[in-house]
Amino acid sequence: MLVFWKQNLVFLAVPKTGTTAIEGALAPKAAMVMRDPPQIKHAPVYRYRRFFKPLFVQAGGKEPEIMAVVRDPVDWLGSWYRYRSRDDLIGHPNSTRDVSFDDFVLEYCKGKPADFANVGSQAKFVLDGDGNMGIDHLFRYEDQNLLIAFLEARLDVTLDLKRLNVSPSKPTPLSPAVAARLREKRSIEFEVWDMAGRQSLI
User: Fold this and answer.
1) CA 115 to chain CA mean position, Å
2) Is 97 within 8 Å of 153 (Cβ atoms)?
3) Between β-strands 32-33 and 65-70, what pairing exists: parallel, antiparallel or unpaired?
4) 96 burial type by CB count under 10 A (0-12 exposed, 13-18 middle, 19+ buried)
5) Which of 67, 82, 92, 113 is the most exposed place for a label (fewest CB within 10 A)?
6) Would you give the DSSP letter of residue 150?
7) What is the pTM (predicted TM-score) of this model?
8) How far is the CA of 157 from the CAs of 94, 97, 129, 137, 161, in angstroms?
9) Is the CB of residue 34 less than 8 Å from the CB of residue 41?
10) In terms of pLDDT, which residue wins out, 43 or 167?
């Protein structure tokens, strides 16, 4: 999470959407940088509203706008899958080293997935407890030019994003049947990504 107090903007860091690169580029400009623990760095909108928003309103008498980035659900899962295939997780319950991408996605579709596929939800990150959009400015990871243009204009900076925290290279083929299952069981993830694509919240 990055807080830009003077610009009245809070950047919520959805995992696996390039937020480490954005943090690296914008941390010097931010009034507050929440790096640790992960529950704070990657605080979803409901946690932000419960713990941080009241503090900011009380301290400054204003309610910062919130922005976030979401990623194509299949690519987002592919990034998690590759990230959890790294060498230091071999033998750990989170490891995907010996799991196919199809099996990873099928496990993710379950109500309570095994550890290796328990990666949360982009939709739950940006929706409030009533299922309503809680983000003022929602961008697609794939629309980097639009995201960068917004940040440069809002924060009066020039950005040169460098890829950081890159996942290992590993193929992520997804069969049509599993892709259909993902869309059926996790349709809300695709709905949120579509919302970001329409840019109706900017």
Assistant:
1) 19
2) no
3) unpaired
4) buried
5) 92
6) H
7) 0.91
8) 38, 40, 34, 18, 12
9) yes
10) 43
Classify the C-alpha dihedral 26-28-31-35 as positive or negative: positive
Q: For the chain, where are the alpha helices, taking DSSP H only?
A: 19-26, 38-41, 45-47, 53-60, 73-83, 101-108, 122-126, 144-155, 176-185, 187-198
* CA separation for the pair 43, 66 (Å, rounded): 12
**Centroid of chain to Cα 3:** 16
| Lowest-confidence pick of 49-53, 64-68, 187-191 | 49-53
The arithmetic mean of pLDDT across residues 20-49, rounded, is 90
Q: What is the mean pLDDT of residues 141-166?
A: 86
| β-pairing verdict for 137-140 and 65-70 | parallel
Q: 126 near 68, Cβ under 8 Å? A: yes
d(CA 96, CA 119): 12
